């Protein structure tokens, strides 16, 4: 029996996630700030990319300096994980103290540039509220960025209608105001736990 490309990509993502978790756990000393997410300070490279936003404009990571950034890879045709994650991040951000809400930005990076035009991406992120920026780019750029954060993505073969599934990581990477990697938010964290981490990080960065 053969294994489908999507199944192989899913297994690869699972393996990469386990490796990443082991790497993160081995790098934590247990000292300092207590987080609900995984502390990845010093274990991941800083935020760096050149992509395109929902208006078709070129965007670089340093344009978001001064804000806490939540980076999430996904695609607009995602049936469940992406909308659930974006809704959770939106709720966590909107429940922050008023003065902190403008300091947190979610960067939703589509790994499906074939279908996710800038216009479609902009309409998609707008549905989930303020404070979410949709970004995408050429597949080569997206693969380079995914590799930078030790993850990957893959495409299933299209069906007779041209529809296809995309496998991708479910992790959310959190970067501080200077673009340094600080936290990894697991899918099992709830809105309140994410909110607590964002408040603590905002205070630590002031």
TrEMBL record:
It comes from the Bacteria. Cu cation binds at residues 78, 82, 168. Residues 38-203 form the Thioredoxin domain. Keywords: Copper, Disulfide bond, Metal-binding. The keyword Transcription regulation does not apply. The keyword Magnesium does not apply. It holds the Pfam family SCO1-SenC. Disulfide bonds join 78-82. One of its GO terms (molecular function) is metal ion binding. Belongs to the SCO1/2 family. This is Cytochrome c oxidase assembly protein. It comes from Marinobacter guineae. The lineage of its organism: Bacteria, Pseudomonadati, Pseudomonadota, Gammaproteobacteria, Pseudomonadales.
């Amino acid at each position: 029996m053969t294994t489908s490309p999507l199944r192989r990509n899913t297994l690869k993502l699972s393996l990469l996630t386990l490796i990443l978790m082991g790497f993160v756990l081995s790098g934590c000393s247990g000292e300092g700030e207590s987080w609900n997410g995984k502390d990845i300070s010093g274990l991941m490279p800083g935020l760096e990319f050149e992509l395109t936003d929902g208006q078709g404009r070129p965007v670089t990571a340093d344009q978001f300096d001064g804000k806490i950034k939540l980076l999430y890879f996904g695609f607009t045709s995602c049936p469940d994980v992406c909308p659930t994650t974006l809704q959770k991040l939106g709720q966590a951000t909107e429940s922050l103290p008023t003065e902190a809400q403008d300091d947190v930005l979610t960067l939703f990076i589509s790994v499906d540039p074939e279908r996710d035009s800038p216009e479609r991406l902009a309409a998609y992120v707008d549905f989930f509220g303020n404070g979410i920026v949709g970004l995408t780019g050429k597949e080569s750029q997206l693969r380079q960025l995914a590799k930078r954060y030790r993850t990957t993505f893959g495409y299933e073969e299209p069906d007779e209608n041209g529809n296809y599934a995309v496998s991708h990581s479910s992790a959310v990477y959190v970067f501080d105001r200077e673009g340094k990697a600080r936290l990894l938010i697991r899918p099992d964290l709830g809105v309140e736990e994410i909110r607590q981490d964002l408040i603590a990080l905002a205070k630590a960065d002031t």
